[in-house]
Design brief:
The protein is of the alpha/beta class and 183 residues long. The protein is built from 6 helices and 7 strands, in the order E-H-E-H-E-E-H-E-H-E-H-E-H. The chain has one domain: Rossmann fold (3-Layer(aba) Sandwich). It has a 7-stranded parallel sheet with strand order 4-3-2-1-5-6-7, with helices on both faces.
Amino acid sequence: MKKKNICFFGAASPKVKKEFVDEVEQLGEYLGEKFNLVFGGGASGLMGAMARGFQKSHAHITGVVPTFISEFEEVYEACHDLIYVDTMHERKKIMEEQADLFVVGPGGLGTMDELFEVLTDKNLDRYNKSVLLLNLDSFYDEIIQYINQNLNSGIINHERFNDFYICDSIEEVKNLLPFICET
């Protein structure tokens, strides 16, 4: 049976908390036993941690990299496939198309852009893919409050968010995965 693809969104910054890096790398090693990885191709921060974890499990890794990104961050060269694109929009499109589900770790503006594009597409019923938000150390509490406020007011469609999960720990992700997808 072919492995499904997890798309990971998360910080590329080397300034992210070391605890987050360690946890995400452990999660990547666990996920790599069951899934392939599609991600933004960065070698540092949480992107690099997730890729290193998948590499430890000998899983297939696909990086989708804008040609200009090397001006800002190092590319994870150990990817089995590196797909170079011209724009961030193209990067997101390819990652979303290849993904069977999404895992979103702590991150900055790029991660927020990716998260909200995926949630918008879910709300517009463009696809029905699970999204797991890693709320490590309460990183996303304000975003979760915002989403809940919109769900409670009816601005966001409840039915399309049945497969949006908030996980406060790596253990919660591990416990949840068997219930949301066949691996």
